[in-house]
Amino acid sequence: MNLHIKHLVVIGVGLIGGSVARALKHAGCVDRVTGVGRGRENLDRARELGIIDHWTHEIAEAVHDADMVLVAVPMGAYDRVFAELAASLPDNALITDAGSTKQHAIDMAQKHLSDSSRFVPAHPIAGTEQSGAEASFAELFEDRTCILTPEPSTNAKACDQVRKFWQATGSQVIEMDAGVHDELLAAVSHLPHLAAFALVNAVRKQADSGDEEHDPFRFAAGGFRDFTRIASSSPEMWRDIAVSNSPALVKEIDALQAELAEMREALVSHHGEQLLEAFAAAKEARDAWLAKHGGDL
Hints:
- The chain is of the alpha/beta class.
- The protein folds into two domains: 5-176, NAD(P)-binding Rossmann-like Domain (Rossmann fold); 180-293, 6-phosphogluconate dehydrogenase C-terminal like domain (6-phosphogluconate dehydrogenase C-terminal fold).
- The chain is built from eleven helices and nine strands.
- The strands form two sheets. The protein has a six-stranded parallel beta sheet with strand order 3-2-1-4-5-6, with helices on both faces. It has a three-stranded mixed beta sheet with strand order 7-8-9, covered by helices on one side.
- The mean pLDDT is 93.
């Protein structure tokens, strides 16, 4: 694969950043890893686990001799992180990220970096509802899709190296336009998280207004647990994702509300056949997706 990183800096040593560091160390592609973050306990634990070799709270201090930088922080931190990166980033250093919305990442890189052609945006489609360095594991990206969204101005050699970087984690790498990425992910990732949060809140409000004996959570079973699993994800992280991809996400919310409105009308009108058609169409689409992709993007 011809990938050799002398000094990798991981800004945000959580589930994603920690798993990348683990995977690259396992692949023998990196000599030294420096972690950057705000929580000393998490950084100390990452070093104890061998995920990183050193850590610091200061981005400028960490990247001054880096040849590769991974930004793995909430989308709301991108403005600050790229501003601090620009202060001491070497001319030959390459940057990639793991953010869920790509146009915002590109905007922040172009705003702050003197040469944003060295930034290759990426989104590994992998994760769990867990967080922190301790939740990371080297196999997280195995056979998962990683989407690169380079700009026309992106340096070709940088793009090639970043492609190898993500391939070394076990990812299957593809490329697409950042705007297309944000629209697609709004539908299949961002909207489901908002729907899970909304459902739990709807039930929570019913529980708050009732008596303990009839608490709806008391009767929730596997279906509710499976559908709402992702509502245990980081509220701060998903707030940032939602805000940074709001135009595309609003369109998907409107589409979902239109579907629910049709189902509501069918219920009010006792049109069981209309409901059956909607349910059957959804089942057919989901079954076809599972058959083709095995449930993974």
